[in-house]
C-alpha cells in the first residue's frame, strides 16, 4: 500500500489509543517514560481540540496493566476504554467495531508496546485498507532497537510515521483558524519545548503597534 501524501484534516481521521497503561509503561525502554506520557497527553489534547473521534482499548487492566493512565483519562474524561484479551485490537470484535463506527478511514495510532499491540493493530488495519499513521513519539517499545524495528516493519507495510507535534500543526495549518487557535496554542506552549517557549514569549513580550 502506498504511503499517504495528502495532509490530515480534522474531518478525515480518528485516534486509536492502544494499551496506554502504567503496567505496560513500566516495560518501556525506548524513551523516557515521562516524556512519552507527555507526548501522549499532548496528542490526546490535540484530538479534543480538533474534535477527532477517539477509541481507547486496554488489556489485562485488572490483573497487571492497570487502567488507562490517569493523565490521559483526565484529558478525555468521557472516554471509556474497551477491554480486550487479544494483543491485536483488530482481532477483538468490540474494539474493531468501535474503530469502524467512527466512519474514518485514516487512523492515528498511539500505544504500548510498539513490538506487539501497536504493530499488530497497524498491520491488520493496513490489510483492511485503512490509512495508518503511527504517532511514533507517542508509542513505546521494550528497547530502542526493538521499537525502531517495529516502526520499520510498519512503515515498510505502508504506515506513515509521524509525531504528535506534526499531527497538531497539520490539523491547524493556519494560525488564523480562530476556532482551534487558543486550544492548539495552549498545547504547544505546554508540551512543545522550545517552540512552546517561543510562542509564550511572542504572546507576552511582542506587543502589536
Mean pLDDT: 95
Largest sheet: 6 strands, parallel
Helix content: 40-55%
* Separate helix tally: 9
Structural class: alpha/beta
Q: Which outline best applies?
A: globular
N- to C-terminal distance = 52 Å
Describe the SSE topology.
Layout: E1 13-18, H1 22-25, H2 33-50, E2 54-59, H3 70-75, E3 82-84, H4 93-101, E4 106-111, H5 114-127, E5 131-135, H6 144-157, E6 160-162, H7 164-172, H8 178-191, H9 193-205
Parallel strand pairs: 1-2, 1-4, 2-3, 4-5, 5-6
Helix pairs in contact: 2-7, 2-8, 5-6, 7-8, 8-9
Protein name: Hydrolase
Domain Isochorismatase-like: 13-165
Pfam family, one: Isochorismatase
What characteristics describe this protein?
Hydrolase_YcaC-like; single chain; 9 helices; 209 residues; alpha/beta; 6 strands; six-stranded parallel β-sheet
Question: What's this, in brief?
Answer:
The protein has 209 residues and is an alpha/beta fold.
Describe what this molecule looks like in 3D.
This protein has 209 residues and is of the alpha/beta class. The chain has helices at 22-25, 33-50, 70-75, 93-101, 114-127, 144-157, 164-172, 178-191, 193-205, and strands at 13-18, 54-59, 82-84, 106-111, 131-135, 160-162. It has a six-stranded parallel sheet, with helices on both faces. Helix 2 (33-50) runs parallel beside helix 7.
Amino acid at each position: 500500500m502506498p504511503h499517504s501524501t495528502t495532509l490530515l484534516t480534522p474531518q478525515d481521521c480518528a485516534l486509536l489509543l492502544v494499551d496506554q497503561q502504567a503496567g505496560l509503561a513500566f516495560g518501556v525502554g525506548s524513551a523516557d517514560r515521562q516524556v512519552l506520557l507527555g507526548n501522549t497527553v499532548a496528542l490526546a489534547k490535540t484530538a479534543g481540540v480538533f474534535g477527532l473521534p477517539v477509541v481507547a482499548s486496554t488489556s489485562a487492566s485488572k490483573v497487571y496493566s492497570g487502567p488507562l493512565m490517569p493523565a490521559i483519562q483526565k484529558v478525555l474524561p468521557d472516554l471509556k476504554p474497551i477491554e480486550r484479551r487479544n494483543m491485536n485490537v483488530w482481532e477483538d470484535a468490540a474494539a474493531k467495531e468501535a474503530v469502524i463506527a467512527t466512519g474514518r478511514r485514516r487512523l492515528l495510532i498511539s500505544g504500548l508496546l510498539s513490538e506487539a499491540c501497536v504493530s499488530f493493530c497497524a498491520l491488520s488495519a493496513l490489510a483492511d485498507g485503512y490509512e495508518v499513521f503511527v504517532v511514533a513519539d507517542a508509542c513505546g517499545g521494550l528497547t530502542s532497537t526493538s521499537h525502531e524495528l517495529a516502526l520499520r516493519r510498519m512503515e515498510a507495510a505502508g504506515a506513515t510515521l509521524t509525531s504528535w507535534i506534526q499531527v497538531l500543526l497539520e490539523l491547524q495549518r493556519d494560525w488564523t483558524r480562530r476556532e482551534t487557535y487558543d486550544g492548539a496554542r495552549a498545547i504547544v506552549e505546554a508540551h512543545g519545548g522550545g517552540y512552546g517557549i517561543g510562542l509564550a514569549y511572542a504572546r507576552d513580550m511582542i506587543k502589536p503597534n
